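Private note to self, pasted from the team thread so I don't lose it. Backbone tokens:
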């Protein structure tokens, strides 16, 4: 932690001590946290559901533009080297071809920044695009074909001939490790922490486990392919993009093409899944460059293989987890170390120690992520980066220790509940994981579990139960802003540069605004997914709801201030301040004298105004400087293993979550279930296979990279504590990513309970379950 951050924390700590509620929108002074009689907390169907089902929702590849040309990419086939020859003559003469662009004729462009960073990108690529003949990884685009139709572009792409001068590349973990490692960093913070002498405490512990776990690469497979429709309007660039960062993309594209940020307009009204992968990659840059050369609009849609070739995913990890405990099960030592791979032009390790920083109290800690460099597609954020794979290793090790000590694994976890942040020592804002364990265990029927493996058999199937803890931190990034426009007829429009990737953003915030303004839900409209709108909000880190929510709270306060200025002497609201009024029934009233009421329509009519508009900006996120803020969950699994084939199946899943106030139970349930299904894919089938001879991904399709489908997914039961966090806007913490955490461990632990085979190397495939007696 650097000196500047420490100083800022001290300033904020003092400020909070002096005025603990002043900086907490949605905190103790916000009545909506505890209210149970309005929209918040009630199940509401998604406002955009009908448009999506009926095909009216426009996605990035569906914006019609005149004279549109279609792009196709040619990908390199070597892991590292240079382009020796590049023959495009046959492609250029193919039917319908408009342009073939390579490094030889591409316009001058600066390297891509990402997430508003300069220099080496934290995630994704920071490399020049089509500015030289260098090849940095197998699959890097080396040519773009532009044609009148997609079919013509795809055909012509196959006619491009490329030869290479190959250089020695590092394409295996063993070779990368042999070249040495370096300390890992995540978001500017070192991934290393020691408290006490954990190795000594482990050696002295009465009970101990010391195990290595590994996870493979994982690829992004959002149902919507990465796509962009691009056009130049004079010197301005217009992009309809499948992105979860419209503002960041606009800024980044401006940097690439030497434009002012205001000259780039990015819209992304609907995104068919993101999970961290829908950021800025080479395809947007290449489409804009080709459009500039051709002088006409361009549409680029990556094929499924194309997504694997140029869009990063989750990198591989090898993790050591060692836990030492005393006779009563208290942890004396907690060690979580290991290695994660990155590319030479990337700086994004998988920070797998993050869950170990918050889940359990221990007498000593040793946490460390070392990084090694391998040539390949630059890795990036993927749902719960760090926590997803880190909870697999940590929660498997806790289960192994519980087995060794013959203690119920839930009881062992509860015995090691911390009373403050285990690493930082800060007070905990809100933590009700014990309640989640109790309610989940009762509904799941945990008491019927036999701790001994292979004790339950139904026909050909051995049946077992397992559990694991889920966790994800509370994040709220700076840049949140929102604008509310209220019209005389009692309707409100809210606008913010946020994103709808299927999680129900528009519905959730329509509920919040309706509640705060005292309007009906049908009187609220939401505008989002447009870089021209207020704010610089990233749909990532499970923080969009909090960031937008805080901004909406501030915008509503500013709107009320503006409305109160309209209240003349004859108005019952005359002279009141914003903190003295509340919204209800399409107007404002005095908090302690509700009969002093005036409608919005009357206020505006008296002032001769048709509408009133106000903007609010969320100040820098201050909550986490004073409080330890995390969401938690208890994941339960019933799994079966076939004694004849060794096939594993998951037959029941339950998640009991502690994520603060749940704003919309209907969309929240969907988010939790989606995350758990993704965790199921991690556990049983997902794996990016790499040919280490040439660094090429060998299963770049959904026919060969398996994800859970309907017949794989069992009934998933969801429940939550619904206890508001007093230090979060609206009392809500993020829920988009927590479902994937803990789920893979719960499945692996259930499989062990079923058949007695402990799998420490994901995914759990048939060959890894062949070590038990099928009889």
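Design output:
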């Amino acid at each position: 932690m650097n000196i500047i951050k420490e100083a800022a924390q001290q300033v904020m700590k003092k400020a909070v001590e002096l005025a603990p509620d002043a900086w907490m929108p949605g905190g103790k002074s916000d009545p909506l946290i505890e209210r149970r009689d309005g929209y918040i907390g009630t199940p509401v169907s998604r406002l955009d559901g009908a448009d999506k089902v009926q095909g009216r929702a426009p996605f990035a590849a569906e914006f019609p533009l005149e004279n549109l040309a279609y792009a196709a990419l040619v990908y390199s086939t070597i892991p590292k080297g240079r382009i020796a020859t590049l023959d495009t003559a046959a492609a250029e003469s193919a039917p319908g071809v408009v342009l073939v662009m390579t490094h030889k004729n591409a316009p001058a462009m600066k390297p891509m920044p990402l997430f508003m960073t300069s220099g080496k990108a934290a995630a994704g690529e920071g490399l020049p695009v089509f500015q030289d003949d260098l090849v940095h990884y197998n699959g890097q685009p080396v040519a773009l074909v532009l044609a009148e139709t997609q079919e013509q572009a795809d055909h012509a792409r196959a006619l491009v001939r490329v030869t290479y001068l190959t250089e020695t590349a590092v394409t295996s973990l063993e070779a990368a490790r042999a070249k040495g490692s370096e300390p890992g960093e995540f978001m500017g913070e070192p991934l290393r922490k020691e408290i006490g002498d954990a190795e000594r405490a482990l050696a002295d512990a009465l009970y101990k486990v010391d195990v290595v776990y590994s996870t493979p690469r994982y690829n992004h497979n959002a149902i919507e392919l990465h796509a962009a429709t691009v056009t130049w309007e004079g010197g301005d660039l217009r992009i309809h993009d499948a992105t979860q960062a419209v503002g960041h993309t606009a800024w980044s594209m401006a940097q690439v093409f030497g434009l002012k940020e205001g000259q780039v307009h990015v819209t992304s009204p609907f995104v068919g899944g993101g999970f961290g992968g829908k950021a800025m990659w080479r395809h947007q840059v290449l489409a804009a460059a080709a459009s500039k050369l051709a002088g006409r609009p361009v549409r680029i849609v990556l094929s499924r293989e194309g997504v694997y070739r140029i869009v990063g995913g989750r990198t591989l990890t090898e993790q050591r987890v060692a836990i030492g405990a005393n006779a009563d099960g208290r942890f004396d030592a907690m060690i979580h170390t290991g290695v994660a791979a990155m590319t030479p032009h990337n700086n994004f390790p998988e920070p797998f120690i993050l869950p170990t920083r918050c889940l359990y109290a221990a007498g000593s800690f040793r946490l460390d992520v070392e990084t090694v460099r391998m040539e390949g597609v630059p890795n990036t954020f993927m749902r719960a980066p760090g926590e997803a794979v880190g909870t697999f290793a940590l929660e498997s090790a806790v289960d192994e220790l519980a087995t060794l000590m013959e203690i119920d694994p839930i009881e062992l976890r509860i015995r090691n509940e911390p009373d403050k942040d285990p690493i930082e020592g800060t007070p905990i804002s809100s933590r009700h994981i014990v309640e989640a364990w109790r309610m989940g265990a009762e509904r799941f029927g945990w008491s019927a579990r036999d701790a001994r493996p292979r004790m339950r058999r139904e026909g050909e199937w051995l049946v077992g139960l397992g559990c694991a803890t889920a966790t994800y931190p509370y994040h709220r990034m700076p840049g949140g802003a929102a604008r509310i426009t209220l019209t005389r007829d009692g309707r409100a429009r809210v606008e913010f540069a946020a994103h709808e990737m299927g999680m129900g953003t528009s519905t959730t915030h329509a509920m919040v605004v309706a509640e705060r303004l005292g309007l009906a839900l049908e009187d609220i409209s939401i505008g989002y997914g447009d870089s021209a709108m207020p704010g610089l909000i990233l749909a990532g880190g499970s923080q969009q709801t909090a960031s937008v929510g805080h901004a909406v709270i501030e915008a509503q306060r500013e709107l009320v201030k503006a409305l109160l200025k309209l209240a003349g002497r004859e108005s019952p609201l005359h002279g009141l301040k914003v903190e003295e009024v509340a919204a209800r029934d399409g107007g404002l009233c005095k908090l302690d004298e509700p009969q002093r009421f005036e409608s919005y329509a009357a206020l505006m009519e008296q002032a001769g105004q048709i509408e009133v508009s106000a903007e609010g900006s969320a100040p820098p996120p201050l909550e986490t400087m004073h409080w330890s803020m995390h969401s938690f969950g208890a994941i339960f699994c019933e799994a079966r293993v076939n004694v004849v084939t060794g096939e594993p199946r998951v037959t029941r899943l339950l998640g009991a979550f502690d994520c603060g106030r749940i704003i919309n139970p209907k969309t929240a349930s969907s988010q939790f279930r989606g995350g758990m299904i993704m965790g199921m894919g991690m556990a049983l089938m997902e794996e990016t296979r790499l040919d280490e001879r040439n660094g090429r991904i060998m299963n770049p399709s959904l026919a060969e990279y398996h994800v859970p489908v309907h017949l794989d997914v069992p009934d998933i039961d969801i429940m939550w504590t619904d206890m508001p966090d007093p230090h979060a806007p609206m009392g809500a913490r993020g829920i988009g990513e927590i479902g994937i955490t803990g789920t893979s461990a719960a499945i692996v632990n259930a499989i062990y309970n079923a058949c007695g085979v402990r799998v420490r190397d994901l995914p759990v495939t048939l060959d890894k379950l062949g070590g038990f007696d099928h009889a």
